[in-house]
Amino acid sequence: MPPFPVAAQAALADTTLRRNLAHATATIRAKRAGVVAEVEDWEDLRVQAAAVKDATLDHLGEHLLTLEASLTARGVRVHWARDAAEACRLVGDIALGHGLEEVVKVKSMTTAEIGLNEALAERGVAAWETDLAELIVQLGEDLPSHILVPAIHRGRAEIREIFRARMAAAGRPAPADLSDEPAELAAAARLHLREKFLRARMAVSGANFAVAESGTLVVVESEGNGRMCLTLPEVLVSVVGIEKVVPTWEDLDLFLRLLPRSSTGERMNPYTSTWSGVTPGDGPQEVHVVLLDNGRTRALAEREGRQVLRCIRCSACLNVCPVYERVGGHAYGSVYPGPIGAILNPLLHGVGSDPATDALPYASTLCGACAQVCPVGIDIPGLLVRERVAVVDAHRRDPRPKAEALAMRAGAWGLGDARRMGLAERASGLVGRLPLGRRMPGGRRGLSWLPFPGSRWTGARDLPAPPRESFRQWWSRTGRDEGHRP
Question: Locate the 4Fe-4S ferredoxin-type domain: which residues (predicted)?
Fold first, then answer.
């Protein structure tokens, strides 16, 4: 994917995308606001959740060992994965060890983060998404553009065409007379997926939370497909980020009150599934848990940045972000889009080596709306500024100066000498006398075009036209008239 500025410019030109995003995010925002207003102590819950997460992160190693012991005692095989490649290898080995050519999947940001579907496909194993929105993305050979609603950028007519054109190659075909009515689209997906549920011998999931004291994994979802994956197959593999651990069931209760209201705008999730190991004759008889690092200890080592690991993937920050609403998730070039992705990706992967990652902290107006709605109190605007500093510092070691650095040096040269600054003011005054640009708010005129390198600014915004008279000129004129010297 290209860096955010390039991708965003293309997204802004897509009027259909902008219309779909505006409608969907406005609907989710309104639902969330309604159910949050019902909770008198909502702000207290946010503070409590942040405190629980921070305390857990302070002793994360201890809680992970407790989780491992609890899982093992219940018949679960626990694996540790340093990075995406190791996690994908582990899951692939389990599937191939059972001679499988396909698996079904619960919607999982973590498996998308590590590129599990693609890694399994390279080894001859087809991974079928069972969440409706993820199914749309997969059949459309697309990328998710939202944490909660991966197909938020698609309209009903587009989904119908995807089903009619692609379902047959993946299994049961869509009905020939399929319309774009939501009920009919959902029914077609249900029939298509039912065959996969009944046939699958192995499922792959993530987990919203992992309770250390009991070795319990938790998945919350709205369609019931997760429960089908978690109960029907013989083998279950759960890929879980190490930050998903919570110490006790009491802590879990707190987050189950915050998550549905923040994400789907519901008082509670339609399906909350919990599973604790292997139960003979009931559910999967072989359970594996892959505890994934993949940069999380890098973020944990950051004194301020570690708060990003509080994130419970509710997507509330995306739904209030004016930038996300206009460009969508694809522009971020990551499975984690929006404000949280703009800080999570640099903290997980580091800055200074990938231009796409380095551009993400700048994909924000710093309006602060994301921080106001975050259920675990992450200071997203503050972390965005911090990551911008980290990006700049990372490039100070580069012997090739960037255009921004050259511009700053040129500015310092001009502003560092009174005579040079005076000449620049006179030159800008001449420009200010020219009939350029267009009218801006307040009656002033702005320059809508400048030659390179000024075009880097005017390509996205107007530059206020310089005043005809500089402050020095005004002072000299008015001061002399009043008997004062500048």
Answer: 308-378
